[in-house]
Amino acid sequence: MRAAFSELGKALEAAAKVYESMGSNVSTPDFAKGAASHFKANQPPDLPFRPLSFLTVAYPSPPAQLTLTIGGERATIPIPPIYIGQDGADASMDALMREAAPGHRFAHTKGISQKLLAAISGLGRYGRNNVCYVKGLGSHCSLFAQYTDIPFEGPTHDPLGFMDECAGCVICMDGCPTGAITGNPVIDADLCINRYTYRLDPIPEDVPLSVFNALIGCWPCQALCPVNKALPMNEPETLELGEAETAEFLDYKAGLTPALEGRLRPFFRNDHLLSVAARNAALALGRYGPNKPGESGDRD
Ligand code: SF4
Ligand code: SF4
């Protein structure tokens, strides 16, 4: 685990500048407006103590995968970093912070991206793909930031500067299935498909179904990144479903049976992922649609 501080006033100033600069990226006006107003609505923070700094931690959260069995063949669907094992993770991090700084007060950040605070504190840096990278962990890590009353004076880092490895590299730009990575400091969030995988809303007509590739989120820009490829890799945590279980799972409109839920829940350790996984698996395998596998006409 890695941790870094940022002084509250300077961090908020730097964050405000980033939210303003997002507004000038004309390709994502709605996204930028929403993020900026969410930030403003939560500043200054309404807390039962006077916050003086942010404490941000990064902890390992590697990718995993689900292997399905269809007609005797195996199909593996990636689960990008940060999604497995998130149930209770914030509470554990909160407890660790309190243990490390007894007598001090902590409150979860509101309205500010954890990635942004990690970049402002110097804990991490953005990649061209808008993902935060931490030394030694790449993007295979989760971030957790809290307001604290611990006094801290230190440098404020430029959150918009890409990590050094991005200089001259366009691998994620080339590998993004939707062209969302534009080379601007902020990606074109309207094109990034992550958000469609977080809810079970119908996929909009103008989003090609062939771009979906993961059980939640989207994986190519991180999977292809040389910074992640250079990490010491263990075999990803994998759950394998048999033929009958796979058939039940991909029947996503029917919902999970108790037996299947009993298999998936302890593996995911993330209720949100559990709620969207079957629909997203059907999307990733081209089986999203009402009539037959691969049919994409109906988007309910
Ligand atoms: S693929 Fe290249 S440009 Fe993209 S985040 Fe990784 S190092 Fe940076
Ligand atoms: S998450 Fe997917 S859609 Fe978004 S930038 Fe990365 S590769 Fe592109």
Q: Spell out which ligands are present.
A: iron/sulfur cluster
Mean pLDDT: 90
As for the number of domains, it is: 1
| Number of helical stretches of at least 4 residues | 10
| Radius of gyration based on Cα positions | 20 Å
The major beta sheet can be summarized as: 4 strands, antiparallel
Q: Provide the structure class.
A: alpha+beta
List the helices and strands and how they pair.
Elements: E1 2-7, H1 8-23, H2 29-41, E2 53-60, E3 64-70, E4 73-79, H3 89-100, E5 106-108, H4 114-121, E6 124-126, E7 132-134, E8 141-148, H5 171-175, H6 220-223, H7 226-229, E9 237-240, H8 243-250, H9 258-268, H10 271-284
Parallel strand pairs: 3-9
Antiparallel strand pairs: 1-2, 2-8, 3-4, 5-8, 6-7
Bound molecules: iron/sulfur cluster (SF4) (2 copies).
The site of one iron/sulfur cluster has 11 residues, from helix 5 and helix 7.
Keywords for this entry:
300 residues; 9 strands; binds iron/sulfur cluster; alpha+beta; 16% strand; 3-stranded mixed β-sheet; single chain; globular; 10 helices; 4-stranded antiparallel β-sheet; 32% helix
Summarize the structure.
The chain is α+β, with helices and mostly antiparallel strands and 300 residues long.
Task: Please describe what this structure looks like.
The chain is α+β, with helices and mostly antiparallel strands and 300 residues long. It has one domain. Helix content is 32%, strand content 16%. It has 10 helices and 9 strands. It starts with a strand and ends in a 16-residue tail after the last helix. Bound molecules: iron/sulfur cluster (SF4) (2 copies). The site of one iron/sulfur cluster has 12 residues, from helix 6.
